[in-house]
Design a protein that fits this description.
A hairpin with a 5-residue loop joins strand 24 and strand 25. By secondary structure, this protein is an alpha/beta fold. The protein is 51% helix and 13% strand.
Length: 812
């Protein structure tokens, strides 16, 4: 290292420390596969003292060697930081050469002389700000970072964007593996440089995004497309409009739909959101983020498809993606959010708006579909919510497939990059809208969004616990279509307005897989687990000792026999977890002579059902097994497996569970062994028995046996009406089931509003029909069958005796 560079590093060390605040991506070293026993060499895009100093601070935070140090190789000292390109001269067009090719060639020559030599080459991409390039330059280009800025431009960049820098590390590359490739040392060095150049280009694209297209270019591209021109022609013919009027209407649709992305607003929004998150949340937990970073590094077009719990989802997921060092996606938002002044803010943050229904709007449909394809083809990532609205119950809602079908059709027309769908689980320990959700489920009208409503919500934001974002396993659409429709590429020659016959069933199947993946990546948090335990108690009240023990046992079940490998669990022990949950002040804590009692606040147990429902699918099979053990006071393993075999397909449909029936049976067998190891059951000969009532784990087992009661009771309602009517219209069956469930809710204090939700009954009747549990007559009515009668008898053994007796005697 030259004396001049050493001097610059020393002189600029403190100014850079003062001006620069960088974000490390990833935030831990486990993803980088770095071996601390081997020498590390950093590989940067451009020769920059400020980049090297920023990296030095980041490396110190992560416990890595400083890039200003040297590394010993075969007894000689070498710099441990190298650059692909030199600094852009103040007057000139091309950056100077760094001579890295010669150095790498020398390294690979050493590898041939020393078979044990293995350097870890860690590419690091450093960006200052996240502003994308524009088709039309403006004054902001002075401070917009590019690959190799001049020292003068870099000065402005650090002054204005020093606190918005990202240090993005990539997985270490083994120099030994590179040296073992065919070719001369110089050939391998050139290959490494080419790979690094491609890698840095993809990093830049994934972090900054594609070039922003000016509005006129966008309008011309979309309104000039064949599908929109054809829709305009149809509009002229059907509505007797002039071509100019129809085109003007198409333009108004496009202006209503389109986003107007402004990076500066997103950067400002990041500052505001950081303040908000620090005020209201105790932390944001992100799981499996390496999946989206790897997709971006591979050049994929990413489509994020999350579940929808709250209006906070729009902000939280975008914030998380931004802090993973990726460009924020364009977000499909309901037109109800396009109100002054927030509609304009959302639009400039990347939101594009869609109407609730496209029915009868051929021109609107054509414009929207073409706009979505435009985003994909230009390389923008996209985010949309398939459920069509926020879940009012805390469960995953059966998806609407319109946006997903348009995404698949865009792939059919041809997109240059591979398109991957990423399911996303979003969860909270406190949802700001939960009170209004409960009112809507009980019949109140949904309030229209307004500035006043937003300001009221912001004012109340405090002590919301933790937020959770888990990224699911990506689904690459090209591969998915290859597996399901091998000849799908033949459809590219068909007219764009012609829908393939296979599209609807394939999209429906894909939508189910996505929502199932969302649940596969669930986050079990303190509020959800506590709600599950309290609602399983007959009085909705537990002592602190009972609740702590149950939390510990429930976490142990998921640790030893996880619902899936992607589920995330609390890291605290049960006692710490309970204290953290109580600190949210959403539960009632009273004291008597024996200790603390914990219950829902103000007897509002129904509010807790929302959080329980976020994770109820994790405990569906464990709860079913334990209900069978307690109801029969001892059962054989075969009896348990028979029950799971009969009921699991219905639970799977309702709760979007990922296992097939055979896997569910294997899982049930594993759970039985886990229960025994934890003391939740005992065995006598061939029988599985409840634990002794005096045992430490009896209460946990009892609570687990009751956690699926409401689901089983709802099944009993439908099957009883079907059994008594023998034949009934599906709509009438669902209506009567809702009425009976409302009555049971009043009689027996069932606090869950979704207990009588028509959508849940609709899902169950669909599952009965699809699994051949009911018959149908010539008029299309559902008819009781031998299978439905047997299922009813099994369910009746598991539900509360008083409800079973009431249903037996109830005249429907």
């Amino acid at each position: 290292m030259s004396w001049m560079r050493n001097a610059l590093l020393k002189v600029l060390k403190y100014p850079v420390a003062l001006l620069v605040r960088s974000k490390d991506v990833p935030g831990n070293l486990s993803e980088l596969k770095i071996d601390s026993t081997k020498p590390i060499i950093y590989f940067l895009m451009s020769d920059s003292v400020s980049d090297q100093l920023a990296l030095s601070k980041s490396a110190a935070r992560l416990g890595l060697p400083k890039p200003t140090d040297t590394v010993s190789i075969n007894g000689e000292l070498y710099p441990n930081c190298y650059f692909l390109k030199g600094t852009q001269p103040l007057f000139g067009k091309k950056p100077s050469m760094t001579g890295v090719n010669k150095t790498l060639t020398e390294f690979f020559r050493m590898h041939r002389q020393d078979a044990q030599l293995d350097l870890q080459i860690v590419p690091v991409f450093i960006t200052w700000g996240r502003a994308p390039d524009r088709t039309k330059p403006d004054f902001t280009d002075l401070i917009v970072s590019n690959a190799t800025p001049t020292w003068l431009r870099k000065l402005f960049i650090i002054l204005f964007l020093g606190r918005d820098s990202f240090i993005s590390y990539s997985k270490a590359v083994s120099s030994r593996e590179m040296a073992d490739l065919k070719g001369s040392d110089s050939d391998i060095a050139r290959k490494l440089i080419r790979l690094a150049s491609t890698h840095f280009h993809r990093k830049r694209q994934s972090m900054i995004g594609p070039t922003l297209v000016d509005i006129q270019h966008r309008n011309n591209a979309i309104l000039g497309s064949e599908s929109v021109k054809q829709a305009i022609s149809v509009q002229v013919e059907e509505k007797k409009q002039s071509p100019s009027e129809a085109k003007k209407e198409a333009l108004s649709y496009l202006e209503e739909i389109s986003s107007d992305y402004r990076e500066g607003l997103v950067r400002f929004g990041d500052k505001i959101l950081t303040l908000i998150w620090n005020k209201i949340y105790n932390g944001i937990h992100v799981g499996h983020a390496q999946r989206i970073r790897e997709l971006a590094n591979q050049g994929h077009e990413i489509v994020y498809i999350p579940c929808h719990r709250s209006h906070m989802d729009y902000l939280l997921l975008t914030y998380v993606i931004y802090h993973q060092g990726l460009v924020t996606p364009h977000i499909a938002a309901g037109i109800n959010l396009n109100f002054w002044p927030f509609g304009g803010i959302f639009r400039r943050s990347g939101a594009f708006f869609l109407r609730r229904s496209f029915a009868g709007k051929k021109l609107y449909t054509a414009v929207f579909r073409e706009y979505l394809e435009f985003l994909f083809n230009k390389g923008y990532s996209v985010k949309f919510y398939p459920e069509g609205g926020r879940s009012r119950t805390g469960r995953v809602i059966p998806p609407k497939t319109g946006m997903l079908a348009m995404t698949v059709q865009a792939v059919l027309k041809g997109i240059h990059r591979p398109v991957s769908i990423v399911p996303v689980y979003i969860g909270y320990e406190n949802v700001m809208e939960v009170n209004s959700y409960q009112k809507e489920l009980k019949g109140s009208n949904k309030k229209k969004e307004s500035p006043l409503q937003i300001f009221k919500a912001i004012r109340k934001l405090k002590n919301y616990g933790h937020g959770y974002v888990n990224f699911g396993e990506p689904i690459t659409l090209h591969k998915y279509l290859d597996q399901h429709i091998p000849e799908w590429r033949d459809e590219r020659s068909q007219p764009s307005d012609k829908k393939p016959q296979w599209l609807t069933p394939v999209v429906n199947d894909l939508a189910t897989n996505i929502m199932t993946s969302v649940n596969t990546n669930a986050a079990a948090n303190g509020m959800a687990l506590t709600s599950l335990c309290l609602l399983s108690s007959k009085t909705h009240t537990l002592s602190e000792q009972e609740l702590t023990s149950a939390l510990s046992d429930f976490i142990q079940i998921q640790t030893l026999s996880p619902f899936s490998d992607d589920v995330t669990l609390p890291k605290e022990d049960a006692k710490q977890l309970l204290e953290s949950t109580l600190s949210l002040q959403r539960l009632n804590v009273t004291q008597d002579n024996f200790g603390r009692l914990i219950s829902p606040k103000d007897n509002r147990a129904s509010l807790l059902t929302y959080y329980r429902n976020n994770i109820i699918h994790l405990f569906a099979i464990p709860g079913l097994i334990m209900a069978n053990v307690f109801a029969n006071k001892g059962v054989t393993v075969q009896s348990i497996l028979t029950l799971v075999s009969n009921l699991y397909p219905l639970l799977q449909r309702e709760l979007f569970m990922h296992m097939d029936k055979d896997s569910a049976l294997t899982y049930a067998t594993k759970l039985i062994a886990t229960f025994e190891s934890l003391g939740l059951v005992k065995t006598e000969g061939d029988l599985i028995l409840p634990p002794a009532s005096s045992g430490d784990h009896y209460n946990s087992a009892w609570l687990l046996s009751r956690c699926m009661q409401e689901t089983l009771q709802r099944y009993a309602v439908v099957l009883t009406i079907l059994d008594k009517k023998k034949s009934i219209n599906r709509a009438e069956l669902e209506r009567q089931s809702k009425e009976v469930a409302e009555r049971l809710s009043q009689l027996y204090g069932i606090s869950s509003p979704e207990f009588y939700d028509k959508n849940v009954f609709s899902s169950f009747t669909s599952a009965l029909k699809d699994n051949a549990k009911v018959d149908s007559d010539e008029s299309g009515n559902l008819c009781a069958s031998e299978q439905s009668t047997e299922l009813r008898e099994e369910v009746f053994k598991l539900i509360w005796p008083e409800i079973a007796q009431h249903l037996e005697n109830f005249d429907v």
